[in-house]
Specification:
alpha+beta; Immunoglobulin-like; 5 domains; 5-stranded mixed β-sheet; 18% helix; Aminopeptidase
Length: 713
């Protein structure tokens, strides 16, 4: 924000001189501007009063003691008319020379920065009103150019559940790339590397806040791109790097919103668009007709500062100027709610109990983002990005950013008088696959998927999946680590190793998210698991039959298995192929006879639900086929020699029929008995039959399968 480019060197002209804690201190100190846009504090000659320090702002020395040039946004010839301080507010009145040839938003903010820090260094308050010959300085700005009415009216609200449903909120993460008149630049440089520019970490914090507000049902209007995967602007920079003017132009806003000061609708050419970029933030809120405008910034003061003298803390600003008078009280309420929530969260949950509460100062017209929106507006300055050994470290911590933005979301809910939809610590069960039954001693891996609706989870901050009650009958481990950071709105799957106890019974395994040292939270995963005694008794196989047990190559064979188990069979296979459970004990499958002649065996395995198995074997013979007349088949001595090695095929006319067979008379008048259960032949049919010769039957007969007898007429 306006304090973020501060590069403050407390260079005093006299050895041993300290900063004063009251307005009449040991040395008056003025804050000037360095060529890189930072600030430089320098003790000045004359009375050691705040008035003297303010008077000196228009006359910077040619150079600082370290050799760098010093400038000032307060123009030469400007003089202090008066300084009044009451009720933690300063009113500073300069001569009209401060206006010069004109005033824009960027210089107004720079003036306010110099004056505010000069007063703060000399013990003054943070709320400052700046006047020019008795008139508010901001009133000397060129007026806002008219913005056409939004023909679509107030944006439709999202059809979403949540305590902020129906509310429309502008989220304004500060700064972003702008056209400087010669190139695209950030508003703020890098301080305390590897911390990135304020322009970028403001946006990263804003993503967390937007997630919470959306999950609460709010309709969001953002004046910068909050999707890091959105792609690149035409200049090659990611869209999330771009400032409000570029983004609002891209989103179809009128030129009078994104280029209100210059009127140049072609961005990236011509004069500096710094004031356009500043004004666009509040004008977009007015154009959209939102309920509130909230802005996110970080602060700066001393520039890459290390040590106990470096500034720290959070302040949230509002505007009570006449331009914003109708919204001053509600803006203060909004700022106060946000400030209180953020301070409480950082002090108790980060935790840093010494985090400084810098209050809710009044910009008093000197900041466009809190003055221009015609609605409640608040701007948070969260931490000092140039305090390298504290605040800047925090600003690199995603948990700190997430925690702070959840607290800002809570402050917004407090302003609207509603509860948060999701708490600071919130988790939702998405799924789990914990089994309902296990065998005693059995070990399985189970998975639980949780969605985070609160602050960011990581292992450094002691977020884990925990066993409720600090013990679990199925797990020796009572914690499962969060493998990586889980941002709000994202999900994570935990893998648990569960082992059933040796004693049969019903057990409860239950798990919940926990931040150790703070609280258990969110949905509880509770599963009843029946543990069964170990089954060590294998199945029993009474018999395996193969029908027919003599077949030609490729014939269909019906394999039947009589199998039982003391508990439950899981499967029966033949040659590795699953068999069908056709009745209480019988399993069957049809397979094809092998191609090779001779005896063959079939491997049968019965397996129970505990994994116990029993093997068995079925046998059959693959035989050749001999054509034989009835006369030949009736020659017992010859057929007896061949019957165990061959199948026989014959033909003739049916002369008599029984339920399970018929008599077949050949051309020579010899009759052969054929057994073929289920046949449909009648007397006089001319039939061919193939099968196994059973000479021991009474009378001897050709034993055939139904598929091996057929009519020939």
């Amino acid at each position: 924000m306006i304090r973020s480019r501060v590069h403050l060197f407390l260079t005093l002209l006299s050895a041993g001189v300290l900063l004063c804690s009251t307005l009449a201190g040991q040395a008056a100190t003025s804050v000037y501007v360095t060529p890189d846009g930072g600030l430089y504090a320098l003790a000045v000659s004359g009375p050691d009063t705040a008035e003297n320090a303010l008077e000196a702002l228009s006359s910077p020395p040619y150079a600082a003691p370290d050799g760098r040039a010093l400038n000032s946004a307060i123009l030469p010839g400007t003089h202090l008319l008066s300084l009044q301080i009451s009720d933690d507010r300063a009113v500073v009145d300069f001569t009209r020379d401060i206006i010069g040839d004109g005033l824009d938003e960027a210089r107004l903010e720079a003036i306010h920065t110099q004056v505010r820090f000069t007063l703060e260094i000399n013990g003054g308050p943070a709320s400052v009103s700046i006047l020019a010959a008795g008139k508010d300085l901001y009133e000397h700005l060129p007026p806002l150019n008219p913005v056409p009415a939004n023909t679509q009216g107030r944006p439709p609200v999202r059809l979403a559940a949540g305590t902020l449903a129906g509310k429309i909120i502008t989220l304004s993460p500060g700064h972003g790339l702008k056209w400087s008149g010669s190139s695209w630049t950030t508003d703020r440089p890098v301080y305390c590397a590897p911390l990135n520019q304020e322009d970028y970490h403001n946006l990263e914090m804003g993503i967390y806040l937007e997630t919470h507000l959306l999950e609460a049902g709010a309709t969001m209007k953002t004046n910068r791109c909050t999707n890091k995967s959105y792609g690149n602007h035409a200049i090659g920079e990611p869209w999330w790097h771009m400032g409000p003017s570029a983004w609002l132009q891209h989103k179809g806003y009128p030129c009078s919103v994104y280029a209100n000061y210059t009127g140049d609708c072609t961005l990236g050419t011509g004069a500096s668009e710094a004031t356009d970029n500043i004004r666009a933030r509040g004008l977009a809120s007015n154009y959209d007709g939102v309920d509130i405008h909230v802005a996110i910034h970080t602060n700066g003061y001393k520039g890459d500062c290390v040590g106990s003298g470096c500034p720290s803390g959070t302040g949230t600003y509002y505007d009570s100027s006449s331009s914003h008078a109708a919204w001053g009280a509600v803006s203060l309420d909004l700022a106060t709610r946000i400030q209180n929530a953020v301070i409480s969260a950082v002090r108790t949950q980060y935790p840093d109990s010494t985090w400084k509460d810098r209050g809710t100062p009044d910009f008093a017209g000197s900041n466009s983002e809190t003055r221009v929106p015609q609605r409640a507006a608040a701007l948070i300055e969260h931490g000092f990005h140039d305090t390298c050994d504290r605040d800047a470290v925090y600003l690199q911590d995603n948990f700190f950013k997430s925690l702070s933005m959840w607290a800002m979301y809570k402050g917004i809910c407090d302003y609207f008088g509603v509860a948060t939809t999701w708490g600071m610590y919130s988790s939702e069960l998405i799924s789990h696959d914990i089994p309902t039954s296990l065998k005693a001693g059995q070990t399985v891996q189970a998975h639980i998927t949780m969605r985070n609706h609160g602050v960011l989870w990581n292992s450094d901050r002691q977020f884990r999946l925990g066993a409720v009650g600090e013990s679990d009958p199925l797990s020796a481990a009572t914690r499962v680590q969060v493998a990586s950071e889980v941002a709000p709105g994202n999900s994570v799957t935990f893998t648990l190793t569960l082992t059933a106890p040796s004693r049969p019974g019903t057990y409860v395994t239950d798990w919940q998210m926990v931040r150790d040292g703070y609280t258990w939270f969110g949905d509880v995963v509770r599963q009843f698991v029946v543990v069964e005694a170990v089954d060590s008794v294998p199945p029993e196989i009474a018999f395996v039959t193969v029908t027919p047990n003599m077949a030609a190559p490729g014939d269909s064979l019906l394999v039947e298995v009589d199998a039982t188990d003391d508990r439950s069979l899981a499967s029966v296979t033949v040659e590795g192929l699953p068999m069908s459970h056709v009745s209480d004990r019988i399993w069957s499958r049809t397979i094809s006879a092998a191609a090779g002649l001779g005896g063959h065996s079939l491997a049968v395995t019965a397996t129970d639900t505990s994994g116990n198995s029993t093997p068995a074997t079925g046998t059959y013979t693959v035989a050749g086929i001999l054509w034989a007349s009835g006369q030949s088949l009736n020659q017992d001595d010859i057929i007896a020699l061949l019957a165990g090695q061959y199948l026989f095929s014959t033909w003739g006319r049916v002369t008599s029929v029984t339920v399970d067979g018929f008599a077949l008379q050949g051309a020579n008048g010899e009759t052969v008995q054929v057994r073929a259960p289920g046949h449909t032949f009648g007397q006089g049919h001319f039939v061919a039959a193939r099968g196994r010769w059973d000479g021991n039957a009474t009378p001897p007969a050709l034993i055939c399968q139904p598929q091996h007898v057929r009519r020939l007429d």
